[in-house]
Amino acid sequence: MLSFFFKGTNAMLEKLKGALQQRYSTKVFKAGEDIEEDKLQLLLDTLPLSPTSINSQAWHLYLISNPAKKAQLAEATWQSNQDKYKDSAYLLIFCAKTTFNRQDLQDIEQLTADIRDIEVNEARVEMLNNYIGSMSENERQEWLKRQVCIVFGQFLTTCALLDLDSCPIEGFDTKAMDQLLGLKEKGLTSVVSAVLGKRDLSDFNTLDKAQKVRFPREKMITEIK
Length: 225
Ligand SMILES: Cc1cc2nc3c(=O)[nH]c(=O)nc-3n(C[C@H](O)[C@H](O)[C@H](O)COP(=O)(O)O)c2cc1C
Prior knowledge:
- This protein is α+β, with helices and mostly antiparallel strands.
- The chain has a single domain, classed as NADH Oxidase.
- It has 9 helices and 4 strands, in the order H-H-E-H-H-E-H-H-H-E-H-E-H.
- Strands 1-2-4-3 form a 4-stranded antiparallel sheet, with helices on both faces.
- The longest helix has 25 residues, at about 135-160.
- The two termini are about 30 Å apart.
- It binds flavin mononucleotide.
- Flavin mononucleotide (FMN) binds near residues 81, 167, 169 and 170.
């Protein structure tokens, strides 16, 4: 029984490693080509499972497939990213909340209490309120943006596991993006974007044409035993 478990675990880890080795940032998408609906739904289901600091979950995602809206938002990106926005099946804009206060903490603790059928932990609300209160406004915004990046990293890994072609895209003007999506009024700001779709045959970044470039593990990881 145990050996079966470990066999399964190894197979899963091999699959994960293989998926991460074969994923790459798709640079040219086939216009008008959709992705599998079941894969998209699975991907969306996994996003709220991402961990965030103090379970803040202060992020929001815009998933855009409307061609006119994608073309409009492409105006906020660098020239080199514009066709990716237009030709991919989905454009995703990952946003952070612009405020995070006692009420947000209260909402999380209320949800925790509801789900676990316990009392709201007021002492925890107080303690966390002191924690977020110890940050300057700028620090708090940076902290909120970092949480979005955690969701984003999980998103990229899940795309790899689902064998979905994607490209992470940071190359856009956040002010212009916020304006085009009317984010300020919603208490949000754009942090990072991504596109999903099917690679075009002309994509110059596939692994057979552009081998993956990474520093060796020894350079990146220091073990202190
Ligand atoms: C946060 C982030 C932002 C990125 N922004 C862009 C971008 O604006 N345009 C682009 O073509 N690629 C972008 N990339 C892709 C990187 O250039 C790419 O991940 C890196 O070169 C490694 O290549 P690989 O993803 O194919 O393994 C971004 C990647 C990340 C993680």
